[in-house]
Specification:
Keywords: Membrane, Transmembrane, Transmembrane helix. By secondary structure, the chain is of the alpha+beta class. The protein folds into two domains: 2-46 and 334-465, no CATH class; 64-330, no CATH class. Helix content is 37%, strand content 28%. A hairpin with a 2-residue loop joins β13 and β14.
Length: 474
């Protein structure tokens, strides 16, 4: 009696359409587990790539952000305090003197930058590094202390200096000297003995929403000149300045437009720039970017930005106003591979659907183990893809991986289906499916539109071929 029940159950599993549908759905869900591990593998390899690139950049020089030159003038600030004698209860006023700094930005600032970039490799990973030669010119005008009510006799003119803030001091490759009128002054990094590091303005800690162009905390370290001679201070007439700044950096270079009028002209041999910031370039993008490099020009007026020309007490963090260029490696293979794995569920489901329709229409029996082998072959596509992209282009890896899986499943189908017609159909269907996904990956802007149209066509095809199936049978 027990044997008879088992035979009936086995017969139902073998011949029931409903049972086969449940079995295929269960196997599809099971195969999501290896797909999940493939996605984790891609993320792990991507993080490894980021670590190696950071190591390259640390040795060569990190991303460059420049913020200067700035005229720094100390002044006396008087603070009145009230002290109460606890014995007598009498209150007396005392005046304390503090030395504070005022910071004045240039009236105009012109920057010419020549950026020579190259792809630097370590193992199988590549980072973009560069050497930049920059010429700064402009002028300082008479500092305005009246907005803070500071008297002329409280200004310490003899201790005026010029400062330059940079995110990458270790990448500097020349002795930086600024020429004010006819007098030259050397810059040196300033060390604050009360802390464990360089003097800094506020550190821009990583906040992707506020600083989407920077991948980590940006700490500005500053260079400062010696005390300026009286002839180099713009007390009565403007003082012109100029200096050269040569620096090694990686991935990107940017500036903060502190001039009342800021003009930046940049040329580079890198063929894949990505411009960022809130200020439009003057160049036409198609004309300024070629396979041999790019040119970029910006002109920013004070009215275009939202900060003043002078600050008292401390310098603010103006990183959100930075603009510049990222020297990107054109293709991120890991990102493409990760996007491809997101279509894994669809590939497995549609492939199983094809075998299900063939099994139902032709009455050929396909064992659940054979479905499992086909599903595992489909997941192997993604491990092949990620391993091959580390040593070749995404296109080459995709063609090899897709071709290998299509041939494997087609030959396996021949042994299951016992003819050439169905395996040929399966091979063509898988080729079309992988081709469809490849097109979607390439068309980032139209991926949703093309994907929706493609799925609609697939659904229509399935509805057409399944219209004659008797779904009441089983």
């Amino acid at each position: 009696m027990e044997t008879q029940k088992n035979n009936r159950f086995g017969h139902w599993i073998k011949n029931s359409i409903t049972a086969r549908m449940f079995m295929i759905g269960f196997l599809t869900l099971i195969l999501l587990i290896p797909l999940f591990y493939v996605e984790s593998l891609i993320k792990e390899r991507s993080h490894r790539k980021a670590d190696v690139i950071n190591e390259i950049n640390e040795k060569w020089g990190n991303e460059v952000v420049l913020y200067g030159p700035i005229l720094k003038i100390p002044y006396r600030h008087y603070k009145e305090t009230v002290k109460v004698d606890q014995k007598t209860g009498l209150a007396t006023k005392e005046q304390q003197v503090e030395i504070r700094e005022a910071y004045f930005f240039p009236e105009n600032l012109t920057i010419k930058a020549d950026v020579k970039a190259e792809a630097k490799k370590r193992s199988i990973y590549t980072s973009t590094v560069f050497h930049s030669k920059m010429d700064f010119k402009g002028e300082f005008t008479l500092p305005d202390f009246t907005s803070e009510g500071i008297k002329n006799e409280d200004i310490i003119w003899e201790k005026a200096t010029v400062v330059i803030n940079s995110s990458n001091l270790k990448g500097i490759r020349n002795q930086v000297k600024i020429k004010l009128n006819d007098k030259a002054y050397s810059f040196v990094p300033k060390y604050n003995k009360s802390t464990t590091g360089y003097n800094t303005i506020e550190t821009a800690y990583y906040d992707y929403n506020k600083y989407p162009n920077y991948g980590k905390a940006i700490k500005f370290q500053y260079l400062e000149s010696g005390f300026l001679d009286e002839s180099s201070i713009p007390k009565e007439v403007p003082v012109k300045f100029e200096f050269n700044f040569n620096v090694n950096g990686s991935e990107q270079i940017s500036f903060i437009p502190i001039g009342k009028e800021t003009r930046v002209s940049m040329t580079s041999n890198w063929h894949s720039p990505s411009f960022f910031g809130n200020f439009l370039r003057l160049n036409n993008e198609k004309e300024s970017i070629t396979k041999d490099g790019f040119t970029a020009d910006w002109e920013i007026l004070q009215i275009n930005r939202q900060f003043e020309q002078e600050f008292f007490g401390s310098l603010p963090n103006l990183l959100e106003f930075a603009f510049g260029v990222k020297l990107i490696v054109p293709v991120d293979e890991y990102q493409k591979s990760e996007r491809t794995t997101k279509y894994g569920f669809m590939v497995i489901s549609l492939t199983f659907l094809i075998f299900f329709l063939i099994q139902t229409l032709s009455k050929i029996n396909i064992h659940p183990f054979q479905y499992l082998m086909i599903g595992l072959a489909l997941t192997m596509f993604y491990t092949l893809l990620i391993s091959l992209t580390e040593h070749s282009s995404y296109l080459t890896a995709y063609l090899i991986s897709g071709g290998a899986v299509v041939i494997l499943i087609s030959l396996y189908s021949k042994s299951i289906l016992k003819n050439y017609k169905f395996p040929l159909f399966i091979g063509l269907s898988l080729t079309a499916l992988y081709g469809f996904i490849f097109v979607i990956i390439q068309l980032e802007n139209y991926a949703l539109l093309v994907g929706s149209i493609g799925l609609f066509i697939i659904l229509s095809t399935v509805m057409f071929f399944s219209r004659k199936i008797d779904w009441n049978n089983g």
